[in-house]
Design brief:
Layout lengths: L3 E4 L2 E4 H5 L29 E2 L8 H10 L3 E9 L7 E4 L6 E2 L4 E8 L12 H10 L3 E9 L7 E5 L11 E9 L39
Parallel strand pairs: 4-7, 8-10
Antiparallel strand pairs: 1-2, 3-6, 5-7, 9-10
Length: 215
């Protein structure tokens, strides 16, 4: 009996066929078990601390807020005796923590309004000008015998001076009255015979009659 074997590629000796390495079948792939997936963690942004800017000039306050990672919000300009653009108030208190790039509103100083000059103007026009400029009007009158009636003779504060809005401006209005006519004095009446020989008024001469006596 032949010791050869027939394979798909032809006849092979048995001993050679037995020495061929056996090919291991690949192990079936195991299906991976479902693992829970976690969302990537988002880093928490660092908060920005609001600096103190009250009392600073507007330009310096802006630089300080930008350095802290914040923006300047609405700027409200209010009349004040402080120097122009000085920060009077900040909308968010210093030390407060905000999201980066948040806005901080500011109140800054603006020049006080000037008082209109109304001396010599009619009363109605003067009052209208002062009220339109934001001032309260107090008026008094001064009686005169000459000049124009109903015009402003003086004001306080003076024209072009700076004053707070709603403050009082006092004006003096002329009140012209014609002088009353003077009555002439009545002439003095002299009665006849009031003058005596001695030149004295109201005295009668003392005349004594002399008669000769006959013995």
């Amino acid at each position: 009996m032949s010791s050869d074997c027939f394979s798909s590629s032809g006849w092979w000796p048995r001993d050679r066929l037995e020495t061929q390495p056996k090919t291991a079948l690949p192990a079936p792939a195991s299906s991976p078990s479902a693992q829970p997936t976690s969302a990537p963690s988002t880093p928490i942004p660092k908060l920005a601390k609001v600096p103190a800017v009250k009392g600073l000039g507007l330009a310096k306050a802006k630089r300080k807020l930008h350095a802290a990672g914040l923006e300047v919000g609405h700027i409200d300009r209010r009349p004040s005796s402080k120097k122009k653009d000085i920060v009077l108030k900040q909308g968010v208190a210093d030390g407060t923590e905000l999201e980066p790039s948040s806005s901080v509103p500011l109140v800054v100083a603006a020049p006080l309004p000037r008082v209109p000059s109304v001396v010599g103007k009619p009363k109605a026009s003067a009052i209208r000008m002062l009220r339109s400029a934001g001032f309260t009007v107090k008026k008094t009158t001064q009686t005169r015998t000459t000049g124009n009636d109903g015009v402003v003779l003086g004001q306080s504060p003076r024209g072009a001076a700076r004053a707070r809005p709603d403050s009082v401006v006092r004006i003096v209005i002329s009140n012209v009255q014609s002088p009353s006519p003077t009555k002439p004095s009545a002439p003095r009446t002299v009665h006849p015979g009031a003058f005596c020989s001695h030149g004295a008024w109201g005295l009668r001469p003392n005349i004594r009659s002399r008669h000769a006596s006959v013995i």
